Amino acid sequence: RKEVEQDPGPFNVPEGATVAFNCTYSNSASQSFFWYRQDCRKEPKLLMSVYSSGNEDGRFTAQLNRASQYISLLIRDSKLSDSATYLCVGTRYNNAGNMLTFGGGTRLMVKP
Amino acid sequence: DTEVTQTPKHLVMGMTNKKSLKCEQHMGHRAMYWYKQKAKKPPELMFVYSYEKLSINESVPSRFSPECPNSSLLNLHLHALQPEDSALYLCASSQGTSMVDSPLHFGNGTRLTVT
User: Fold this and answer.
1) How far is A89 from B25, CA to CA, in rounded Å?
2) Could A100 and B104 be called an inter-chain contact, meaning their C-beta atoms sit closer than 8 Å?
């Protein structure tokens, strides 16, 4: 089982829609979670950190559910410019300690 | 604009060539990373430098050789690569060195093609 798993999509939604992605993680000791956005042929960019109490930034809301071991990203009032791949980041453990690890990404396409 | 600068943006090299990728950050971050990303896949960690010392090598073949000359610079020396090494190579930095507490700041990447 992968440490961090995401539905690859694509999620095709109309402008103005609300869309939500989930990301499951296997390492119950994970403490840090992030959502990154990656546009085609560009580098990943930090969208938001995910805190235990949840986190909201404008149209974006991230939440953590430790009991079920998943994090979510909610995008309200989708814009065309929201079209991108959204990467969930959790942690995995190796000999050197805990490491950040990426999910496979969820592709979002917002249509006019 | 990214605060992590990578050069070159594109690189085409033959399997017998030696080349180097360069990365620079001036945010005072103490950890720097090399990632490799293939098309439609997530970034895969290659190396981590913490306080200018190599702390993690994710079993990367020796044809990839990292170097950290100082706290702001990170190089990746390439020699005798294979066509399957063609990918986007991403440099990243983070403020903390615990590798999980601080988010990663990525450079624009170098798109490498091995012929």
Assistant:
1) 22
2) yes
